Amino acid sequence: MASVILMKEKKLMDVKLGELPSWILMWDFTPKDTVEAFQRGYYRYYNNYINGEKGSIAGFNMVLGAYMLFSHCLSYKNFKHTQ
């Protein structure tokens, strides 16, 4: 017999494309829950890439890449007018 998993407890990789909008609408968007979600993401990133047994430059490269992408998006208007 297949086990029944509630929609709210499914991970993103287990959600089918048609179920995605209803899965996103089940999230809580209160300030407290949003802060907790960012904390979970930070601790997951930190434990996987910074505090891991095999520390490498990969974690730093991800932060650097995200910063470069964010910086480019902010100054895109200026880049667009110079070409």
From TrEMBL:
GO molecular function annotations of the record: proton-transporting ATP synthase activity, rotational mechanism
Protein's organism: Urocitellus parryii
Locations listed in the record: Mitochondrion inner membrane
One Pfam family from the record: WRW
Taxonomy, superkingdom: Eukaryota
Stated role: Subunit f, of the mitochondrial membrane ATP synthase complex (F(1)F(0) ATP synthase or Complex V) that produces ATP from ADP in the presence of a proton gradient across the membrane which is generated by electron transport complexes of the respiratory chain. ATP synthase complex consist of a soluble F(1) head domain - the catalytic core - and a membrane F(1) domain - the membrane proton channel. These two domains are linked by a central stalk rotating inside the F(1) region and a stationary peripheral stalk.
InterPro entries: F1F0-ATPsyn_F_prd
Assembly notes: Component of the ATP synthase complex composed at least of ATP5F1A/subunit alpha, ATP5F1B/subunit beta, ATP5MC1/subunit c (homooctomer), MT-ATP6/subunit a, MT-ATP8/subunit 8, ATP5ME/subunit e, ATP5MF/subunit f, ATP5MG/subunit g, ATP5MK/subunit k, ATP5MJ/subunit j, ATP5F1C/subunit gamma, ATP5F1D/subunit delta, ATP5F1E/subunit epsilon, ATP5PF/subunit F6, ATP5PB/subunit b, ATP5PD/subunit d, ATP5PO/subunit OSCP.
GO biological process terms held by the UniProt record: proton motive force-driven mitochondrial ATP synthesis
Family indicated by similarity: Belongs to the ATPase F chain family.
Topology in membrane: Single-pass membrane protein
GO CC annotation terms, alphabetical: mitochondrial inner membrane; proton-transporting ATP synthase complex
Keyword list, A-Z: Acetylation, ATP synthesis, CF(0), Hydrogen ion transport, Ion transport, Membrane, Mitochondrion, Mitochondrion inner membrane, Phosphoprotein, Transmembrane, Transmembrane helix, Transport
Name of the featured protein: ATP synthase F(0) complex subunit f, mitochondrial
